[in-house]
Design brief:
The chain is mostly helical. Helices cover about 75% and strands about 0% of the residues. The chain starts with a helix and ends with a helix.
């Protein structure tokens, strides 16, 4: 079994949170939400922008998956925590590969995959995905804005 650190090194992907401006975090979450609720008109309107900018949906997946699956340094690791960490890495690797190598636009499938993860893992009930996604969006947009504000403050 390959260790998590090895898999993450093979990904060669730095964390995307600081690199995604708040408007792309907003766009990614809004697209996932419109696909989840079946708003085909809005999804079609957002799709060209989502598909034109490389990486917002994989980055949104990373924002959601890593905090839930990554090994915690606050508690003693156990076999289950290593398995969960590996599952998170594999999930994100699959989404990145899908986004990179899909023969047709992968955005709707990735959006449904993100929403499906949120349902049973992060929502109070699997049917609360539509409520959980805006909460996650608002939290992550605020974080992205804070990163930009900190960077601007450092350069003053």
């Amino acid at each position: 079994m390959i260790g998590t650190a090895t898999v993450r090194q093979e990904l060669s992907i730095p964390p995307l949170v600081p690199q995604l401006p708040s408007h792309l975090v907003q766009l990614g979450f809004d697209y996932v939400l419109t696909v989840e609720v079946g708003d085909d008109a809005t999804a079609a309107r957002l799709a060209p922008e989502v598909e034109q900018v490389p990486g917002p949906l994989p980055a949104i997946a990373e924002l959601i998956v890593f905090p839930v699956t990554a090994l915690s340094y606050d508690t003693d690791p156990c076999a289950d925590s290593f398995v969960l960490d590996e599952v998170g890495v594999i999930h994100l690797m699959a989404i990145r590969e899908w986004a990179t190598h899909a023969p047709t636009a992968p955005a709707p499938g990735i959006a449904r995959t993100i929403a499906h993860f949120v349902g049973p893992v992060l929502a109070d009930a699997p049917t609360d995905v539509v409520r959980a996604l805006p909460e996650l969006r608002d939290e992550q947009v605020a974080r992205a804005r804070a990163v930009v504000e900190n960077v601007v403050a450092l350069h003053r």
